[in-house]
Predict the 3D structure of the following.
Amino acid sequence: AQKITQTQPGMFVQEKEAVTLDCTYDTSDPSYGLFWYKQPSSGEMIFLIYQGSYDQQNATEGRYSLNFQKARKSANLVISASQLGDSAMYFCAMRELSSQGGSEKLVFGKGTKLTVNP
Amino acid sequence: EAGVTQSPTHLIKTRGQQVTLRCSPISGHTSVYWYQQALGLGLQFLLWYDEGEERNRGNFPPRFSGRQFPNYSSELNVNALELEDSALYLCASSLGRRDDEQFFGPGTRLTVL
């Protein structure tokens, strides 16, 4: 069974600083995908970034980058130049594939609550 | 382009009642996923529908059920509500291909008294 671990229940960062949110995963599948989602207090899950297990380069999307270390089974999210609006819950997730190869479901970590201080 | 929509946004029910939650996926998406986010428990996978068929379900009792309609919208039904069913229910949709991300709706917050 796949498992996602986020060891930081809460993190604090000063505005304009960078912050790293940790995520480790466990899977025996050779092919997998890793996602990060942001969940503001409104509840909606906002997709941030995706990393495929065979991707050669670390994914980047604007201020978000993923520090993917396959041998260590870690996929840490780096947010550069933090903004007050970045305060939210952040979830790391792994995609499980169905036997037919389609995207079946996401397995989520318990999340990290990020607070950006002015 | 409209995102995933869910209705209602909030719902209050009492124990033993039944509830139906609705989800409309992004246009062109054929896969719909339901997740439960109970306080302190993180997001738990409930159901996956694709092309009108239930493809998989998570570790939930049979009183959680649903269906997907020909237009790919979906309903989640919960019978015999229990207090621990109080949660945010999130629906997501995707194209269903292996590398596609899931786009989430705003959720339905269910409170069971």
